[in-house]
Each structure stands twice: as C-alpha cells, then as structure tokens.
Amino acid sequence: MLGNTAKPRKSAEASTAKSNTATRPASALRWGWRLLALLWATTLLGAAATAVLISVQPAQDAKPQIAQLAAQPAAQPAAHPAAHPALHEAAQDPAREAPAPTPPPPLPSGAEPHPGDPIPPPQSALLEPSSLVPAGMLPRIAADGRQPFQVYAAGSPRPDGTPRVALLLAGIGMNEAQSMAAITVLPAAISLALSPYAPRTDALLARARDTGHEVFLSLPMEPQGYPLNDPGDRALLTGASQQTNAQRLEWALTRFSGYVGATGALGGEQGGLRGERFGAALDQMLPLLETLGRRGLLYVDPRPNAAWTATSLPAPTKGSQPLARSRGVDLVVDEQAGDSAIDAALVRLEVIARKRGSAIGLLGLPAPVAMERVGVWALGLPARGVSLAPVSAVVQMPVMPLTTARSDAPPPARGQP
Fold first, then answer.
1. In terms of Cα–Cα distance, which of 205, 187, 176, 175 is closest to 49?
2. Pairing of strands 387-388, 164-172
3. Which DSSP symbol is given to 267?
C-alpha cells in the first residue's frame, strides 16, 4: 500500500517541475517587457522634470539682442516674381537628374561644427525685425554671407564615400514630455522639426542645442483630407491669396529662432499632417521657396517621391529670386505603427541610401515605440557601413538617380553579421 501511494506523489512532483520549467521563458519575456516599459516611463518622468527645471531658469538666448533689434526700422520684403517656368518644367520631367547645388560661402576656418557639438544660440547678425509681427524676429543672411542653415547646422562627419541616412523627427513641442525624452535619448545627428503651435519652446530648444540636434521649423500647410485634417488657423492654404499665405508664413518664421530650415511636416495627432495639397500647388510654393532661399534657409518636402524639389531646378534666371535648397524625404518611417513595421521601413531607408548615396526618412511623432526602434537601429549603422548624418548635410548632397544607382548589396538581416 505504501509503495503504491508513493508513486502518484512522485509523478505529481515531476509534472509540477516540468510545468514550472516550461513557463520560465514566457515569464522571463514578460518581465523583460515590463523592465523596458519601466525604463521608458522613467525616461519620460526625468525628461518632464528636466523641462520644468530648465523652463524656470533665466533663458540664455538672444532675447536682449532681439529687443534691441526690434527697435530698428523694419526691412521691406522683396517682391516675388509672378512666375518661375523652371517649376513647371521640373513638374513635367520629375525624373531629371538633379544638379549639384552651388556651394554657399564657407564658414570661417575652425567654425565648422563637429558631430555632437552644441548648436550655437540665435545670433543677432542672423536676425531682423518683422514688419508684420510685433517684436517678432525673422532669420536673414548675415552681412558677411553666413546663412542660418550653415551656422545652426549640426556637426556631420566628413564625406568618405559611405552611404548616408538622415532622419527628420516632426511633431516636436506638442507633447513636451515625449519631445524632451526624444531629444535626450536620440543620437545628435537626428534632426528635429518643431511645431509653431508648441506652447513652450524655450526649454526644448535649449535642450536640443545643448545635445547637438539641429532644428527645423514645421510649417502648417494644407494637407490631404482638409478640412477634416486640420493644420490649424495659421495654415497656408491653396485657396488663400499669396498675400495671406505670405503673412502666415512670416508669422510662423517668427515663432522661434535658431533653425536651419523649414518643412511641411507638422505632425498632428497621428503624425500624418504633411501639407500635401499645398506642396503640390506650384504657384503657392514658389513664393515660399523664394522667401526661404532669400533668408538662408533649407526646405524639406515631407511628401515621399514628390514630383519636384528645388534641387531638381536649374539655376535661377536673371532677376528671379534664388530658391531655397530643398530635398524631399524618401519614405515615412512610422507610416505604419508597430516595431516590426518601423524596423522594416528603416531597412528600406538603408537600401535607398546604398542606391542613391543618401536618403532621408521622416518620423511623424516622437512616439516611444518609434524612438526605441530608431535608437537600436542607429547603434548598428557603423557595422553595416552606413553613416547617420543630419538632414542639413544630406539636403545639400547631389542625389544619384536610381537608374544609375550603385549596386551595393542591401544590409544584412537583423541578427546576422
């Protein structure tokens, strides 16, 4: 009897041990995800606390200089030509190879930034008072030829023939905690696009400059699905007059200072506001590009595979205004949510860079999942022979047409050497 009762007990103990062993990997996986979520929550809380601390400190920017400049007589804006045939020619032939942009005057020796160097604060020589916005300051080209897109650009490694990828992160400023966390944890080479509707920009801009991130101004422009998709009450609209749009553009340009250029990527609740309708209206885009070019700013078109960009245009004719140096993004990295979809988009971005020499990806929002995947991806780029560069460096590069692209092999799959 004793021998018979001992056998079931031993069998039950073995079954329990086997069940515990089988559930151990799943339990470890759950704890891993919990630790990752705890880490991101801690980062967000720390970033929020940093934003509060920075915002209560005295602003170390150019406000005293701005106040002095505001008292100076306002400069009269230059008139826009009525038409620019080159825009229409580019739209008719979007596959035309882009010429290399004319290089700007070089910065003084030793002034070129290095990767990770802090971005200088707004400089009075690169500012002028607005004639429309009280106490507002506009970017301008300095008397010595320095341009904002040079002075406020993030440091970039010297070109060495390796493919270059750049990322533009839009939606900065609308969620302050997420924005501060992204600025803090992402590599300095990733460029930021700050919304003109952001309620508090001083702390974010100070942190971005300290960590070496260059900044673009997001322009509210009429998107697809307007008015259901609403870019705000200061948006540039296809149905508005050029004068109204010029006034709204000037309002946006005065929202903050120290940026390298502008983009139509506004972000929005889902990160999908990209000004598609306004960007396709050539008669409205021409004055915008001329204004940005006259003020020494870049423009990044957020529409993947747009029909034209300013870099595809020939040199301006005599009497016309120079257009802003411009380039369109190659893909939207977070078009589809989820870590697998974002990983796949980043791989495609590398493939494009290998074929064309460089590529620009757009992120619509600083969402935690996207920030985590981008951080992991960026760490592996050097081993795959790809450089991460700021958007300003890639915009100025000549683009290789896909028809004559290099035949570099795509990067290895994740987990492979």
1. 176
2. parallel
3. B
Q: Could you tell me if 296 and 323 are in contact, meaning their C-beta atoms sit under 8 angstroms apart?
A: no
Phi, psi of 396 (to 5 degrees): -85, -5
Please give the Cα distance from 56 to 59 (Å, whole number).
8
* Coil vs helix vs strand at 163: coil
Task: Return the SS3 of 169.
Answer: strand
pTM for the model: 0.72
Cα gap 200→179, rounded to integer Å: 11
Q: Where are the alpha helices (H) located in 192-256, listed in sequence order?
A: 202-210, 242-253
323 neighbors 394 (Cβ within 8 angstroms) = no
Give the fold, CATH level 3, of 58-92+104-404. Answer: TIM Barrel (3.20.20)
Q: In terms of C-beta density within 10 A (0-12 exposed, 13-18 middle, 19 or more buried), how is residue 320 classed? A: middle
Q: What is the pLDDT of residues 170-205, one digit of tens each?
A: 999 999 999 999 999 999 999 999 999 999 999 999
Query: Nearest 5 degrees, angle CA 68-CA 74-CA 80?
Result: 140
Q: Model confidence over 279-315: pLDDT tens digits?
A: 999 999 999 999 999 999 999 999 997 755 544 554 5
| Extents of the domains making up the chain | 58-92+104-404
CB contact at 8 A, 127 and 62 = yes
| Cα separation of the two ends of the chain | 62
Radius of gyration of the chain (CA): 25
